[in-house]
Amino acid sequence: MSDTPREERTPTTTIDVSALEQQASKSAIQLSTESRGKNRRSAITSRSELPKARRVVVKVGSSSLTSIENSIDENALHSIVDALGRVKAQGVEIVFVSSGAITAGLQPLGLSRRPKDLSTKQAAASVGQGLLISRYTEYFARYQVTVGQVLLTAEDLMRHSQYKNAHRQIERLLDLGILPIVNENDAVATHEIQFGDNDRIAALVAHLIKADALLLLSDVDALYTKPPQHGGERIATVKDPITDLEGVEIGTIGRAGVGSGGMVTKVEAARIAAASGIPALVTSAANIERVLAGEDVGTWFDTTGGRRNVRLLWLAHLADIKGTLTLDDGAVDAILGRRSLLAAGVTAVSGTFTAGDPVSMVDQQGVEVGHGLVNYGSDEIPGMLGKRTDELGEEFGEDYARELVHVDNLVNLRRRSARTRLKR
User: Fold this and answer.
1) Among 113, 224, 226, 416, which has the highest number of CB atoms less than 10 A from its own CB?
2) Any bridge partners for residue 323, and if so which?
3) Residue 260 is assigned to a ligand binding site
């Protein structure tokens, strides 16, 4: 036997070349975003921690940027750009959701009030969008910041393929050091597919890019228990939007009369963000410097949930509900227990809708318990009510031997307190 020592072999592992190529094709920012986790809540837990945020969505309302008389408020734009430019220089990723396109286009078109018909709104928006983006390009350049315009419709965040495209676009802009400026594409949106306000766009964009916080800025400095001139007190923190907003009067129209939302849409947007793991702060644009410094201003919405599927967010908060299904107690329990809705548990149907439309589901007292995408039209469901799935298959054929609403197309809802009042 030879005394020559044997050469030890180094253990080897199989290299998955395909996986490496796929990994290499992703940008660093995409990998960073994915590592945040699907159900993670933001690490920012209070307004005082906002200076630590690394990715923030800032939405500013029409009334803080424009006026019917003067088109664009140059001083307001300067103040907002100055604040965001300084924060961006510190390495914070900012996505700016800017309202005001329609109002900015009114004066150049010789209009003295916000139009009501869709075509004139679209014409004003196409003019106003150009004016606003030119101002932003000029003002942000003073901070060596390049901006990129992102125009979205509701459909862009409802359809999976377009949602992915919007996500890739914004992520790539951030990866390149660009400050994305987002607005609803009013020039092409229709009544059927428009958001109706940029507050909810901001909430969904915050979810889309997994932001650390959402700032909703307007001409109102906070949410109050009732109008301040009538003795209302500031609501500093909202931990539970249902119980904490009992008795609160929420205005539906902005003071300047140029926006489409008002405080009610800001509260709704804050709830959307909070429910998807992103804290939100509602205050005035005049407070932007103090907000970014973490000072005690505005109304802070604590997170109430984790990251959610964007389609379910849309279904819960943005879908155009076409009809209503009334459920028995057993069906309500099934819905709340995350099970599909069967025809046997439905006692009544109202509205006009087709298969695939969003519908509301209510209990016997009329309390809404969920939204879902229905598998059958309103003309088909009455003959199906109260029947078991096997009975439906025998009577109508195998196409009817399935659920009315599949659990994957269903979202549970927590209703707003009956003592929360909308002030119109």
Assistant:
1) 224
2) 351, 359
3) yes
